[in-house]
């Protein structure tokens, strides 16, 4: 019969298995994950701003 694998988690950044309560296996992966999260938030804000701008231009164009 196969040996049981101990309880573990996988790193959100690199996918490596590790034992612990954190979401990342190391400080390096944690920093990379935070950088990616910041980049995604920035992209989402830009998307929202551009959408609002396009909607405002469309509403103004319809009013004229």
Task: Provide a descriptive summary of the structure in words.
The chain is mainly alpha-helical and 64 residues long. It has one domain. It has one helix and two strands. The protein has one helix at 27-63, and strands at residues 9-10, 17-18. It has a two-stranded antiparallel ribbon. It starts with 8 loop residues before the first strand and ends with a helix.
Largest sheet properties: 2 strands, antiparallel
Count of alpha/pi helices: 1
Percent of sequence in beta strands = 5-15%
Counting structural domains, the number is 1
Say how many strands there are: 2
Instruction: Write down the Rg.
Output: 22 Å
Distance between the termini: 77 Å
Low-confidence regions: none
Computed structural class: mainly alpha
Global mean pLDDT: 92
Cross-sheet strand order for the largest sheet:
1-2
> Which bin fits the share of residues in helices?
55-70%
What general outline do the C-alpha atoms trace? rod-shaped
- Which H/E pattern describes the elements? EEH
Helix and strand topology:
Layout: E1 9-10, E2 17-18, H1 27-63
Antiparallel strand pairs: 1-2
List keywords for this structure.
about 60 residues, mainly alpha, two-stranded antiparallel sheet, about 60% helix
What can be said about this structure in brief?
With 64 residues, the protein is mainly α. The chain has one helix spanning 27-63; strands at 9-10, 17-18. The N and C termini lie far apart (77 Å).
């Amino acid at each position: 019969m196969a040996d049981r694998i101990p309880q573990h988690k996988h790193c959100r950044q690199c996918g490596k298995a590790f034992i612990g309560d954190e979401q990342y296996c190391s400080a390096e992966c944690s920093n990379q994950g935070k950088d990616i999260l910041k980049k995604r938030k920035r992209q989402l804000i830009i998307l929202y701003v551009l959408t609002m701008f396009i909607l405002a231009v469309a509403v103004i164009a319809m009013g004229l």
